[in-house]
Specification:
about 25% strand; alpha/beta
């Protein structure tokens, strides 16, 4: 009987701790140096929000974003949960406030990509959601490249929407060597190149393609993290994902993977607090 009570108490404490943990996020700061940057630039990165709200009307997240005074807000996908329409409304409300802070650039994650399929049950609702998103002034990006201004800097911003086959549960489907150049040719490689690519599994491809910095999400930090070891499993059900969270330098270029701000299906975060990214691009002398 005593053992049963102890087990029940442990379960209760774990549930309460998780509820408390899922209601918090932190701001993670990164610096990206580049000789292609003329003057410092601050940007915010919001990934995998999944319709979450931190406080009434998401005021905690919005307040922290505003404090950064970013010159742009980048969203590398999954603002909502595809099968839950109420998350579309929550995402839209958040976007309506974010555009008041800075220009917002939004690319597709696997949840948005799934909803773009005409046979998806919520396809019509998603089409209306995207129409409303664009009406707010959000720049929605398919697989494409645009030239944008960040302060005194003219930079290239690209987005990559991978086919849903590359999100197969339990495995990482190889990306063919020529995939990036076939789908997203480099336009002006002498300019600072930013890439929004939801799935971090292909980080080496993004760096080799030529992105000076790539912003990813998707792995939610690996759900459960062991201090000193890293994550155990991704939402895609791959074990010990290599690119789970943090800043990675590959061939002199950077891939930054967000732990995300929301969850879906597996509402678990152990030693893996949600995060809002504050990133500064700074000039670096050549050589």
């Amino acid at each position: 009987m005593i053992i049963l009570i102890i087990i029940l108490l442990v379960i209760l404490v774990s549930v309460l701790w998780q509820r408390r943990e899922l209601g918090k996020f932190e701001v993670t700061h990164y610096i990206v140096p580049s000789a292609k940057i003329k003057s410092p630039v601050s940007v915010a990165v919001i990934s995998d929000l999944h319709g979450f709200s931190y406080g009434e009307n998401n005021h905690k997240l919005l307040d922290e974003t505003a404090k950064m005074k970013p010159q742009a807000i980048f969203i590398p996908g999954d603002m909502l949960v595809s099968k839950y329409p109420h998350t579309y409304a929550a995402a839209l409300e958040t976007l309506a406030e974010l555009v008041k802070i800075a220009p917002v650039y939004y690319s597709y994650g696997n949840h948005e990509s799934r909803l773009r399929e005409p046979e998806c049950v919520n396809h019509g609702l998603f089409e209306q959601y995207m129409k409303n998103v664009r009406a707010l002034g959000v720049t929605v990006m398919d697989t494409e490249t645009r030239s944008i201004s960040l302060g005194e800097n003219r930079v290239m911003l690209s987005a990559l929407e991978l086919e849903l086959d590359y999100y197969e549960k339990g495995s990482i489907v190889p990306l063919e060597a020529s995939y990036m150049h076939k789908h997203l040719p480099l336009v002006e490689p002498e300019k600072f190149q930013i890439l929004l690519a939801h799935n971090p599994a292909y980080a080496e491809h993004y760096a080799k393609w030529g992105a000076d910095v790539t912003f990813c999400g998707h792995n939610h930090g690996g759900l459960v993290r062991i201090p000193g070891i890293g994550s155990l499993v991704s939402p895609q059900l791959t074990l010990f994902p290599q690119y789970d969270a943090g800043k990675f330098e590959l061939e002199g270029r950077f891939v930054i993977v967000s732990r995300g701000l929301g969850t879906h299906t597996f509402h678990v975060r152990v030693f893996n607090r949600a995060e809002l990214l504050a990133v500064e691009f700074v000039p670096q002398r050549r050589g």
